[in-house]
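input
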Amino acid sequence: MNLVLASLDNTEDNGTQSWTSIQDTNITGEIKVTESFTRKEIKCRTVKQKINTNEQEIVSPMVMRRDSESDWENFNNLILFFFFINITITLKLIIS
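output
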């Protein structure tokens, strides 16, 4: 995740950072910062992380946002967290 965080701070939109694993040179990847935007006065950036092995290519899109301490956090995890809280509350209301 450190390269993702560095890319968020140092890469322009549509810029790409590439890497190769030091443990296995058959594993490579890239991180592309695709977009910057502001939501409710919070700086956000979308990132596409791609990992290549001999066997497959894994692509993982992420939405990152600055938290109150100016650290980057994965906004996708927050969306899922609030989604599950909302479902739990809804289910409790339906069951009650």
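quick obs: Residues 2-95 form one domain.
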